[in-house]
Design a protein that fits this description.
This protein is of the alpha/beta class. It has 32 helices and 10 strands. The protein has a 10-stranded mixed beta sheet, with helices on both faces.
């Protein structure tokens, strides 16, 4: 009876109270009036009622907003992915996605769907939600600014950045003089119109520039540091100028704007001398913790909203308050990283695309419908490039930079991107810019941002150099140079031990370069050094134990496998070493193939996957990366399948064909540098029948009698394999080995697969 007690209680309570509810409702009907209106039977159409209800639900403002968000995110992600694939910043694709969803494309070809998705009365909801996204984004931008870099290179940076503002600003005002009568909104004074044209010409997109510098591996070079410093100084100066311009536009005259500017100055002083010390104290208390409590997070977000609200009341726009709040955040990288992680995904992925679409809804390419208007657009682009690109380049040359570096700085500073759109939207909202001018300036922002990557490639081509060479010293042509590319620290240490065993006694003529790549989306300007230290510290400690000098290269990129391939092919290296994980070794490559279970993978199919006929284990991005490297690297390549390689003292090399003779060179390096014991395994009788292999092994055995032995496959017993540290095999022989399903494979140690 006890075990049924809960069941009886459940049905008793639910049944009893359900009956009570029914009785109360029935009694409640008696309270209704005597007369009730009953619809005729013929009009009681439940299906029509359902359709009417669904139509009402679809037209609900919240439903429309959610439908807009779904469409915007899908289209923005697709365009962002496509432009990332062709080597452009994803922000370009997201801006174009916004234009595509606006009247320029969707509204032009599918007007009914466009008006259903973006009805006029829904745009205010989209506008305010996008503004929240911008506030969060500017908070992140303020945090990403590393003000410390201004102290180290202040002189050069201030000269270049201020020249890159003053020159295009002056050209923008000059341009306003010629287009004012034709394009200025009615009633707008020349001062307001010209100031906005000037500030629109002089803005630089700091986030896009920082991403490009990281992705091209320039952040550790002097040139990259100068570019980021210039962009930081430019950003701070430009936003202060924008605040002044907004104050003047709202006040009408410069004299009356002084009240707004004075209030803004008081606000900035309070943020620096009151709020910043308070935040620093919180940062000192909580900066070392892995996570922040909700009350602490609430304090910062509340201050962010108050700061934005204050600047909106003053009259210099809420975005300036968000930017200022981010800039005074505690100077603790871990602390800033936590907040960026909390804010960035919501702002960049969810809310920022709403701003792009809102901008796209305001951008009507169809307004530029005359040759004259396209000429004006071209002239605006020309003035923008002349002012920013050449202005920055000439200033850089003046302070002592080479022509190559000066042009690179000019190309980077010419990047406008999202920051330009923010300025233009403010101008349009204030009524300073017409829809025509707004559209022209949006086109200019797209063109100047799009041209940055190609311009850098052209400059590097003309001067016959690339961005990575700044990491490396001049190399001796007689050196043997090994490049190891690692993803995690443990595999990196195994690769370093292996590389060290190949060059240990030839330190004067050999070198090891360690390469670690990170996705640029995970990087921020303030935490590059910390990210690099955390990536290389275990490798550097291992290098100290081995007494081996290494050259570290740390780089952010959007395409890791292509970047590895390019650096290997262009860097004048003699060997590239990459790794596969232990789990792959035991699980996919050997565990299931050699297990001979009912779920065995067809070895021919596995072979096709490894050699590229199908794609190497396409379910895993890491394996796909290795496949691409195998196919596209033009230098000798070693793929280490790591089973916790600690030392390289006992090595065996199976010889399957005459083409495996090149492995003897690696055996000689291991013997000479590491005193390794090498066992050659004659798998098909080639050590006797082939003169080249026989003489090479014989010569090596004569020279290093204690280190070289020759045997056949019969030696491959568990006792032998347990004593081995490494198997070295050619790529072609590895294919044959997998095809043979040799039972001894399940017991092999770490494997180095070499492609000559």
């Amino acid at each position: 009876m006890k075990k049924y007690r809960n069941t009886l209680f459940y049905f008793g309570v639910t049944g009893g109270f359900s009956a009570l509810i029914y009785w109360i409702i029935k009694q409640g009907k008696l309270l209704e009036g005597k007369e009730t209106i009953i619809r005729p039977l013929e009009n009681n159409d439940s299906w029509n009622d359902f359709l009417v209800s669904m139509l009402h639900n679809i037209q609900d403002p919240l439903a429309i907003l959610l439908a807009q968000i779904i469409m915007i995110i899908l289209v923005a992600r697709f365009f962002g992915w496509f432009f990332k694939k062709i080597g452009q910043p994803s922000v370009i694709g997201e801006i174009i996605a916004g234009i595509a969803l606006g009247p320029s494309l969707l509204g032009l070809y599918f007007p009914e769907f466009f008006h259903a998705l973006f009805p006029a009365d829904s745009l205010e909801n989209l506008k305010f939600l996008s503004q929240i996204g911008l506030i969060l984004f500017m908070f992140v931008i303020g945090m990403e600014l590393d003000v410390k870099v201004l102290k180290n290179r202040a002189k050069e940076a201030v000269v270049i950045s201020h020249a890159s503002i003053v020159i295009p600003f002056a050209l923008g005002i000059g341009l306003a003089y010629f287009v004012y009568n034709r394009f200025a909104p009615e009633g707008v004074k020349f001062l307001s119109f010209s100031l906005f044209m000037g500030i629109a010409m002089s803005i630089t997109a700091f986030p896009v520039l920082a991403r490009i510098v990281q992705e091209r591996g320039m952040h550790k070079t002097k040139l990259g540091a100068i570019a980021i410093t210039c962009a930081a100084a430019d950003d701070i100066t430009a936003w202060c100028l924008l605040a002044v311009v907004i104050a003047i536009v709202k006040a009408g005259t410069f004299e009356s704007s002084m009240y707004i500017i004075s209030l803004a100055a008081i606000y900035v002083l309070m943020m620096i001398f009151l709020v910043k010390p308070f935040l620093k104290r919180i940062g000192d208390l909580y900066g070392s913790k892995d996570s922040l409590s909700k009350p602490v997070v609430a304090i910062f977000f509340l201050l962010l909203i108050i700061s934005s609200y204050a600047t909106e009341l003053i009259g210099i726009h809420a975005l300036f308050g968000a930017f200022m709040m981010g800039a005074i955040m505690p100077d603790v990288p871990k602390f800033r990283t936590v907040f960026i992680a909390k804010v960035e995904d919501v702002s960049v992925i969810l809310l920022l695309p709403l701003f792009f679409v809102f901008t796209g809804l305001r951008t009507e390419i169809g307004l530029i419908n005359e040759p004259y208007l396209w000429k004006v657009t071209g002239f605006i682009i020309l003035v923008a490039v002349a002012g920013k690109f050449f202005g920055s380049a000439l200033a850089a040359k003046f302070v002592g930079q080479s022509w190559r570096n000066s042009l690179v700085i000019g190309a980077l500073m010419n990047t406008r991107g999202l920051m330009e759109l923010i300025v233009l939207n403010i101008g349009l909202a204030l009524g300073v810019l017409t829809s025509e001018v707004f559209t022209m300036m949006v086109i200019m922002a797209l063109v100047t941002t799009f041209m940055t990557g190609p311009a850098l490639d052209v400059i590097n081509f003309i001067f016959k150099t690339n961005d990575v060479t700044d990491h490396e010293d001049e190399v001796d042509q007689n050196k043997y140079r090994v490049l190891i590319s690692f993803g995690n620290n443990e595999k990196g240490k195994s690769l370093l031990r292996l590389a060290h065993s190949l060059v240990k006694k030839q330190k004067e003529t050999c070198s090891i370069t360690a390469l670690h790549l990170s996705l640029s989306d995970e990087m921020h300007t303030f935490n590059i050094e910390d990210k690099e230290k955390s990536s290389f510290n275990p490798i550097m400690k291992e290098a100290l134990v081995l007494k081996q000098e290494i050259t570290p290269i740390f780089k952010a990129t959007t395409d890791i496998d292509t970047e590895i391939i390019d650096i290997a092919n262009q860097g004048d290296y003699d060997l590239l070493l990459v790794g596969l994980g232990k789990s792959m070794f035991e699980g996919t490559l050997l565990g299931k193939v050699i297990g001979f279970t009912s779920r065995i993978i067809n070895p021919e199919r596995l072979l096709d996957k490894f050699t590229g006929k199908e794609g190497l284990f396409v379910n895993s991005p890491f394996d796909e990366r290795t496949r691409q490297i195998v196919l596209r690297v033009k230098i000798p390549l070693g793929v280490l399948i790591d089973k916790d390689l600690k030392e390289v003292n006992q090595v065996f090399i199976p010889i399957y064909s005459p083409e495996d003779s090149f492995l003897i060179d690696y055996a000689q390096k291991l013997i000479y540098n590491n005193n390794s014991a090498i066992t050659f395994l004659d798998m098909n009788g080639h050590t006797e029948s082939n003169f080249v292999i026989a003489s090479a092994i014989g010569s090596l055995k004569q020279k290093f009698a204690n280190n070289v032995s020759l045997n056949n496959e019969s030696v491959l017993l568990d006792e032998f394999l347990e004593k081995q540290d490494l198997m070295v095999v050619s790529l072609d022989s590895w294919k044959d080995l997998l095809d043979s399903r040799s039972s001894w494979l399940s017991g092999v140690p770490s494997v180095l697969i070499i492609k000559p």
